[in-house]
Amino acid sequence: MTITGSERTFKERLTHRPMEQGVKVLWFLCAISSIIAIFCILGFLLYDAIPAFMEIGLIPFLTGDRWDPTSVIPKFGTVPLIVGTLLVTFGAMVFAVPLGLASAIFISELASPRLRQTLKPAIELLAGIPSVLYGFFGLVILVRLIQDWAHVSSGESVLAGSILLGIMALPTIISVSEDALSSIPRFLKEGSLALGATHWQTIARVLLPAALPGITAAIILGIGRAVGETMAVIMVTGNAGIIPDPIWNIFSPVRTLTGTLGIEMGEVAVGSLHYHALFGVAVLLLIISLIVNLLSLEVMKWLHRTQTGGKNGHKSLLQSIPVDLTFITPYLSWIVIIGCLLLLTLVGLWEGAVAVLVILAINALVCRFCKKQQIQQIWFSGIALVMVLVVAILIFILYDIFSHGLPYVSLEFITQPPTNLGRGGGIFPAIVGTFYLILGSIALAFPLGIGAAIYLVEYTKENTLTKIIRTATDLLNGTPSIVFGLFGFTFLVIFLGFGISLIAGIVTLALMVLPTVIRTTEEALRSVPDSLREGSYALGATKWQTVRRVVLPPAMPGIITGAILAIGRAAGETAPIMFTAVVFMQKRLPESLLDPVMALPYHLFVLATTVPGARNNQYATAVVLLVLVIAIYGVAIVIRNHFDRKVRW
């Protein structure tokens, strides 16, 4: 008896049914990993923080104006830490938002295609520089410049932290804002130009309002980067737990929430009141980060509804307002410039007020007496100068590191262990330890992230569970890196008994980079046309066969992009591993997963902050770390381009 093709397909589906169900369950378990991780982090932090809340009192802990755990009567008031965090974050946004938005406008609207192809990788390179390198640059260059310029006793201050965090937030704000501007339909711009508007009027009154959701997202992401940064602020803010007097004294040293955790956790006695109070600070930091992320999600949804008109055909909020509010947009940059002037004011508020009045007067005169083309030329010149400034910052950082560090990078430096507290010898164990941490974390996060994305895109429809999973992923992505380090310390190092070990660092880094892999893989899978899936099903393929043979190959470039971002972040992070995996000096390589390791970011941090007379090896270590990160990005980009060409052919 012969078997027809339809009967064979039916029997094959019956045969594959158990495997299909097993694969679906496996991907579901990967998908809920984000939910499990965020609840585990919050739960373990609360478990260690509750004793402090009970003994100190929640209200005194949140409202106390002094943080001094080492005094005769310990003080655990977090107001100075909260104020320091807010001041540095606000200053960073005042610096980064106007520069980032102007740079995004230049790349999207003014740069030629060839220049755009050059600038975008440069911005990506700025994003790939590890935070400890920014901190090292700020400590040896920026702090000294502020000290000489302002004639103050120390340049470690609110201003130094604000400028440095602003530089670190620039790539995020530029990239996301540029994507938002580039995604606006072309007919809006052409319609505005056809009605007689100049290019600048089109940008200010049409493109910027249309790109407002993306620009808002860029600013919120920049705020998240500034709030959660640890190593850079430790190195440049002075770490004094005081409230500046007056509050606008930008040359006052401050201490942030993340800086407090990074400085004190390594020296505190486990189980002491000070120990539990630090976990209380971590809970406070995590709650602030969760609130910022939840608010950003709600703001994005609201902005999307207002611009699309909402559901059921109702008018959007902007459409329902009879007054044209777009006149505000051209003056938005002036508002930010005023903020910059206030931040850079050397003495009090009077000079700032005078500067504001002068700027407003100049703006009024220009608008009153200059022609549209002249106004456009003024704005475009300013935007171009800002772009030059951003590129100059990148070039200056790279030049300073390479010019001072390259002469001391040798074969012996790369292949020998350190001696004399890092002043001599080399960094070979740190290089190997960094590779171990990167490979281990990616080996753990990559399959989990891809599996979660496959389940969300291919195996389920949009429902309450998927919304919870995506929200958990977003919250995990916005969790400060130091919080991951504390979770790894309390859960992996102490609770599970791993100790300071390679495996503890690997798991901690994997949890940190997991959201990046999930979201980028999701976008890559969604970019595959549904017609390919439908054609595969029509030929009798099962769900898993379709995913494996039809969907994954064309999505591979996007998946590789996720790996690029994850690898770059894992290579340059210090805070998640400083309490879980690394030691400063170790001449031998780890022999098992339970051994501690050296790592380049932590080695550079200790050399720069606690070892005097090690300037040559500081710069040489910075060069090696920077070259490593650039090489990782370069190899990954080559692989991604290979897949792009393969898919096109």
From TrEMBL:
Q: What is its main location?
A: membrane
Q: Does the keyword Transmembrane apply?
A: yes
In the bilayer, the protein is annotated as: Multi-pass membrane protein
Tell where it localizes.
Answer: Cell membrane
Any one GO CC term of the record: plasma membrane
Residues spanning the membrane: 25-47, 81-111, 123-146, 158-181, 202-223, 275-295, 325-347, 353-371, 378-399, 427-457, 478-511, 559-585, 620-639
Q: Where is the ABC transmembrane type-1 domain?
A: 82-296, 431-636
Q: GO molecular-function annotation terms? A: phosphate transmembrane transporter activity
Tell me the Gene3D superfamilies matching this sequence: MetI-like
Q: What domain of life is recorded for the organism? A: Archaea
What biological processes does GO assign it?
phosphate ion transmembrane transport
What are the record keywords, sorted?
A: Cell membrane, Membrane, Transmembrane, Transmembrane helix, Transport
Family membership, please give it: Belongs to the binding-protein-dependent transport system permease family. CysTW subfamily.
NCBIfam families to which the protein is assigned, alphabetical: 3a0107s02c (TIGR00974), phosphate_pstC (TIGR02138)
Q: Which PANTHER family match?
A: PHOSPHATE TRANSPORT SYSTEM PERMEASE PROTEIN PSTA-RELATED (PTHR43470)
Q: What is this protein called?
A: Phosphate ABC transporter permease
